[in-house]
Design brief:
80% of the residues lie in helices and 0% in strands. It has helices at 2-12, 19-60, 68-88, 90-101, 109-120, 129-158, 160-165, 167-198, 206-217, 226-255, 265-299, 305-319, 322-346, 356-373.
């Protein structure tokens, strides 16, 4: 028994293991370890690919309608469409403002550009660009974001049947409500912009013009033109949104041979531009008297509405600078709608026009889900 144990110990002793068997055992262990590492790396890569695919799927999920993210997306689209388009037409806006406040030197469009080029050079055509960009970007965010919000609210208040019958009233009410908020954001920048553009030497840009205006007239001086601005912008925006929605609906109903959701994205964007341009022409005509008032009041320190009417006259109030403003606002509004809808398409949202039905669809689906849960 003792001898068997002794033999067993001696056989298991490493001193008795041949060298070739030792090397073969080590090689087998190394090969097995390598296979395990290879499997582990492959599994890790597969997990990474699955995680990346999962993230891509999550990123591809479209923005859900009528959620906080949807309204924020619409506000961002408003920043891009309104701020950039107003910045692009700054030369036209500059000549228009000078025609309104100094009709003797700026008699018409051609003389306005000529005088501006002679006195201030090419750089003068973009005076007030920073105030324009900041002011109208803020206005665009509030205008488009709150328009979608109020349209959903008023549609829900009216109910599915009444909202279809009163859709134009809903467009008008939602756009007016949104513009009230948007103009509070725009008014200070508009006051600085008009001073920079119409008073040579007042300031170089927004950074020195804003403190100078506050020092001169106080903080309330920034909102001196708020009521005329509301008088200009609220009718303008009501016409802009209601006419656009109606025109786009008519185009898809009578001019385009197939439903909107079956049309290509370029065709939908073309319809958005055309509808926006026609709406812009109507907007310019309706809001022009108030536009003349805003330019006059922001240019003349201490001036009142009565002073503006006495200086410009009723005919001048309605017609001075109107042709240029029709060109500018028509192009501006068409470009805004095209830019806004292009951004919506980019983030996976449908183009504008006829969203009332989708409001009800979202509400109905929410109610169905609620019933299922109960």
């Amino acid at each position: 028994m003792a001898s068997r144990d002794k033999v067993s110990v001696s056989c298991c002793s490493p001193n008795t293991l041949p060298l070739d068997r030792l090397l073969a055992s080590l090689a087998a262990n190394v090969e097995q370890l390598g296979k395990r590492w290879e499997i582990a790396v492959r599994d890790q890569r597969a997990k990474g690919r699955r995680a990346a695919a999962r993230r891509a799927e999550e990123a591809d999920v479209p923005v859900q309608l009528h959620t906080p993210l949807f309204y924020a997306t619409c506000a961002l689209g408003g920043v891009l469409s309104t701020g950039l388009t107003h910045l692009a037409v700054t030369p036209l806006d500059l000549v228009k403002c000078n025609m309104q406040v100094d009709p003797v030197r700026y008699r018409d469009i051609s003389s306005g550009f000529r005088v501006l080029l002679q006195e201030q050079g090419l750089g003068g055509f973009f005076k007030g660009w920073m105030a324009t960009l900041v002011g109208y970007s803020s206005q665009g965010a509030c205008k488009f974001g709150f328009y979608e919000f109020f349209k959903k609210c008023y549609s829900d208040i009216a109910g599915p049947e009444n909202s279809q019958k009163l859709k134009t009233v809903i467009y008008l009410a939602a756009s007016a409500s949104a513009e009230v908020i948007a103009d509070i954001a725009l008014c200070p920048m508009e006051a600085v912009k008009v001073r920079i553009q119409t008073q040579p030497g007042f300031a170089r840009c927004l950074t020195d013009g804003l403190p100078k205006l506050v020092q001169s007239e106080g903080a309330f001086g920034l909102y001196k033109g708020l009521f005329p601005l509301w008088g200009r912008q609220i009718p303008y925006t009501m016409m802009k949104f209601a006419c656009f929605e109606t025109i786009v609906e008519m185009v898809y109903k009578h001019a385009v041979p197939k439903p909107k959701d079956q049309c290509s994205k370029p065709l939908q964007l073309a319809v958005s531009f055309a509808g926006g341009y026609i709406a812009g022409v109507l907007c310019a005509a309706i809001s022009h008297p108030a536009d003349n008032l805003v330019s006059f009041l922001n240019n003349a320190k201490g001036a009142t509405v009565a002073d503006a009417v006495a200086t410009l006259g009723l005919w001048g109030l309605f017609t001075r600078g109107l042709p240029l403003r029709i060109i500018m606002v028509g192009t501006l509004t068409g470009a805004q709608w095209a830019t806004y809808d292009a951004f919506k398409v980019f983030v996976g949202l449908p183009t504008s026009g006829g969203v009332i039905s989708s409001c009800h669809a979202a509400t109905a689906s929410h109610q169905v889900g609620h019933v299922k849960q109960n």
